[in-house]
């Protein structure tokens, strides 16, 4: 995944409680969004296996690894297949490094434009119904497992780049799948499995220690 895709996803894993009119029964979409909000807004840490699939410009690429998250804003994407690489953020600064290369890229989190940004949903800092315009049930899409609910919407701040975001939510209000459809036709999908929440994760896991001889290149 490129740094741009990484950042964009970090946005979508953290959007979330839905608005509700006083005295009116909540819709299935509002109930689901509010449940996801409550779940992730109380989450302190998370670890999960992930599979990332990209399709676009005649290319299909699948990668997998382990994702670790910790409040506030810490992330560690450790890609293991087919090639090791790392995307690590301490909440303020992000690093992208591929073992074997002579440079590691460094950037302020605020300046990153990456598809991992939407994954900030998983850190529970925003409201799903506020962040995804036109949030609705994706009744035309088949969920991965019985009992899961599939929602779709358009991220308000990324509408010029993303045509829709699809979220699949399990009965425990966990996001098991996220699909990001870009306006140019490219599709990036993340699937999460073996999710473990509120485990002890050291801050050191979210600090990048450059191997000897590796140059740190500041990204503009």
Descriptive notes:
By secondary structure, the protein is mainly beta. It is built from three helices and 13 strands, in the order ααβββββββαββββββ. It has a twelve-stranded mixed β-sheet with strand order 8-9-10-11-12-1-2-3-4-5-6-13. The two termini are 19 Å apart. The model is unreliable at 14-22 (pLDDT under 50).
Q: What is this entry, summarized?
A:
Helix content is 13%, strand content 43%. The chain is built from three helices and 13 strands; from the N terminus they run ααβββββββαββββββ. Strands 8-9-10-11-12-1-2-3-4-5-6-13 form a twelve-stranded mixed β-sheet.
> What amount of the residues lies in strands?
35-45%
**Uncertain parts:** 14-22
**Class computed from helices, strands and strand pairing:** mainly beta
User: Largest sheet, if any?
Assistant: 12 strands, mixed
Q: How many beta-strand runs?
A: 13
User: H/E order of the elements?
Assistant: HHEEEEEEEHEEEEEE
- Measured as a percent range, the helix fraction is 10-25%
Q: Report how far the terminal alpha carbons are from each other.
A: 19 Å
* Sheet with most strands: strand arrangement: 8-9-10-11-12-1-2-3-4-5-6-13
Rg over alpha carbons: 17 Å
What is the average per-residue confidence, as pLDDT, rounded to a whole number? 86
Number of helices: 3
Which word captures the global form? globular
